[in-house]
Amino acid sequence: MARSNSSNAWLQEHVNDHYVHMAKKDGYRARAAYKLLEIDEKDKLLKQGFWVADLGAAPGSWCQVAKDKVGPSGRVFALDILEMDPIRGVEFIQGDFREEAVLNQFNALLGGRQVDLVICDMAPNITGTAVTDQARSMYLCELALQFAQDQLKPGGNFLVKVFQGSGFPEYMSAMRETFSSVVSRKPKASRDRSSEVYLLGKQKKA
Asked: Given phi > 0 = left and psi -120 to 50 = alpha, else beta, which region is 28?
């Protein structure tokens, strides 16, 4: 089947992408690693000994960054509906984040201890219908926020990818109810034409 012009353009952009080449050179599984690295450079989210939950982790580039930063004394827990090749020191559960049974399994992995940081780079399967895709994306973001409310220790931080559009202002308001401050980040590795931004909830309220 012939590729559409848009998919050809995406492929050309991907092949020529500076961050794709860097990821190959540096041993990261995806260019998304540099988004987390840049945000962490600015906001100092990842520290030695931290417990981190990575939601929507596959293929695992954020796990790679997190595990490197938290060191041997820290722990990284990952969850995704997709398969993910093992990463040394990362504990992974494959399952649908929207299912309560999967969340319960993930919570059991944490062993009742709350984490220092929740990171979420999840996106839904794209249908091509903007209204549907935005609704699906916001639903995942709401589930991630609920997880952070339940599993983050007081003072912990929450970083989540959000697409600007319907439901975005309400989501910002919900985050502000949970965290002392909420800021947006648009790292250089995030493509200009993408409506994605990263919202960072700092200092979960007690």
From this structure: beta
Catalytic residue among 161, 188, 202, 204: 161
pLDDT the model gives residue 26: 94
> What average pLDDT does the chain have?
91
Within 13 Å and on the Cβ side, how many CA atoms surround 133? Answer: 14
For residue 69, indicate whether it is catalytic: no
Alpha helices in the chain (DSSP H): 5-15, 18-26, 33-43, 61-70, 100-110, 130-151, 168-178
Q: Is 121 annotated for ligand binding?
A: yes
Share of the chain above pLDDT 70, in %: 92
pLDDT at 10: 46
Q: What is the mean pLDDT of residues 40-49?
A: 98
Domains of the chain listed by start with CATH number: 30-204 (3.40.50.150)
Instruction: Please tell me whether 60 is known to bind a ligand.
Output: yes
192 labeled binding residue: no
Kindly report whether the peptide bond that precedes residue 59 is cis, defined as omega within 30 degrees of 0. Answer: yes
